[in-house]
Write a sequence for this structure.
């Protein structure tokens, strides 16, 4: 357990999500895979926030000011905003999927072709 | 080194690997299973595994938020959508991009893993134990991770207050957008 293993787990989950999002025909599965990718990014952000010395602290290793020390938590704050945006994204995404389903009786992304040139 | 000094014990190592393997297996199941409902349940398992990792990373607040929002809200929303779209019998087939996508994801993973293991990270724990930080700074840095919740609250309403307010507007816009999309015309 350490920085590299956490980052590796995040990378593996991200790539599984990427593969699923690119290959699945069901729009709900695509959304689930995008959520997996969000989670992987969150794991990476929190890992970097926990393990890596921030630039301000690396340049000034004797600093005791709160402004410098709280940059240790930047990754966690970022993760909170990512989760907020992900929640909004999945609500809108599922609303779009349901609207398409009402019109076309299908949730397959390959069937929604009105905007195809 | 940070907190109570349990970071390097064998038990936490075992817990980490169990959670890591469980999360990855659950993620593969989400992609591979044809039954959408079971895939959604495995998505819940993957989210719970991620929450466990956040606890191991001393981000207890993020872990709670993860369980509340992902396991509680988003998965219920997804299962609800699966149930109302009646595609459970058809499952979720692949499109024709399977091989190129596998190659792309594999190449991306290989590149990222290479970067992770070839970068010389400036790790906090070794910086503290190696004496590269002043003693007082090291103590204060440990204190940051001993109680993250009040500090995150302070950051959210001071440094990142603009982003915090914009997030509420984003959520409001998402609610209105979702409602207007689903409205009966």
């Amino acid at each position: 357990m350490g920085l590299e293993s956490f980052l590796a787990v995040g990378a593996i989950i991200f790539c599984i999500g990427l593969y699923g999002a690119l290959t699945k025909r069901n729009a709900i599965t695509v959304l689930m895979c995008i959520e997996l990718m969000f989670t992987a990014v969150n794991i990476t952000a929190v890992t970097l926030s926990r393990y890596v010395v921030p630039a301000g602290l690396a340049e000034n290793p004797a600093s005791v000011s709160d402004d410098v020390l709280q940059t240790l938590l930047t990754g966690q704050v970022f993760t909170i905003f990512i989760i907020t945006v992900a929640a909004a994204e999945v609500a809108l995404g599922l609303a779009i999927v349901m609207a398409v389903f009402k019109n076309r009786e299908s949730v397959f992304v390959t069937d929604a072709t009105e905007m195809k040139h | 080194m940070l907190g109570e000094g349990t970071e390097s014990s064998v038990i936490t190592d075992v817990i980490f690997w169990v959670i890591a393997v469980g999360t990855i297996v659950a993620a593969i199941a989400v992609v591979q299973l044809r039954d959408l409902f079971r895939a959604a349940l495995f998505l819940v398992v993957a989210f719970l595994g991620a929450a466990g990792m956040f606890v191991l990373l001393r981000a207890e607040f993020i872990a709670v938020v993860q369980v509340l929002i992902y396991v509680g809200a988003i998965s219920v929303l997804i299962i609800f959508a699966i149930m109302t779209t009646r595609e459970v019998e058809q499952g979720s087939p692949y499109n024709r991009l399977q091989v190129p996508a596998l190659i792309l994801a594999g190449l991306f993973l290989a590149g990222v893993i290479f970067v992770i293991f070839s970068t010389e990270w400036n790790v906090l724990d070794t910086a503290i134990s190696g004496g590269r930080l002043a003693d007082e700074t090291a103590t204060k840095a440990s204190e940051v991770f001993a109680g993250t919740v009040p500090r995150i609250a302070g950051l959210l309403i001071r440094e990142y207050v603009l982003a915090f307010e914009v997030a509420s507007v984003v959520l409001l816009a998402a609610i209105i957008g979702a409602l207007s999309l689903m409205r009966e015309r």
